[in-house]
Structures are given as C-alpha cells and as structure tokens.
Write a structure and sequence with these properties.
With about 130 residues, this protein is an all-alpha fold. It is about 85% helix and about 0% strand. InterPro entries: Ferritin-like, Ferritin-like_SF, Rr_diiron-bd_dom.
Length: about 130
Amino acid sequence: MNISKSEMKTLLKSQQGELNVVLMYQGLSNVVKDTKDAEIFRKLAAEEGHHAAVFHGLTKQNLKPKKTLSVFMPILYRIIGKKKLYPLIIKGEYDAAKNYAPIAKKFPEIESVKNDEKRHGDIVAGLL
C-alpha cells in the first residue's frame, strides 16, 4: 500500500501518541486512590499498547514512548484530583477518535482503534 508523506507523518504522530498514553495510564494506575480506577487504567494501557502496534504495522517504525505524560499526569492527579483530571483524559480520548476518523477511511485497521478511543473516553467518564 502506498502511504503519502503526510499520511506517514499522521501515522507516526498517532503511533507516538499511543505509546505515550500507555505509560500515562500505567503511571496513573500506580497513584490513583480508587482500586477500580487503577484496574481500568491498567486495562486501558494494554489496549493503547495494541493501538501502537496497529500503527507500527503501518509505519514499520520503532518509536520509543516519551515519559512526559507518565510523569506529569500523576503529579496533576495529586494536585487537582480526579474530578478535574479525568475530564482532560476523556477529552484526549474523544479527540483521538476524531483525529483518527479521516485516516481510518484509507486504513481500515484504524477504524477499531478509533472506536476504542471513543469507548475509552466513555469508560473514564464512567469513573466520575
């Protein structure tokens, strides 16, 4: 399959984002007070890892996760708490779903990732 330069840029950015969020959810699972939240964040981390693998299948590039979110979000959790932090996570998941919609038209394997992101937003919303 032919992947244009701009599509590759989008795919790599998406892959990087998924990798970063794996660490973010793992980091949050270690600091949240609610054990149910921690359990869910561990599951979401695993699913985000699968998403990164889907993008890797297209890009064939090995990327390293950036630790920024995994450091920043647990600190933010301690400062502002779940009622203010979770809506930011929810927005991030819904935004990812929106961002994946156009590229999923050309790459059908991204459709399930897009749907998962929407579901992740709903799951985190359910924790509030």
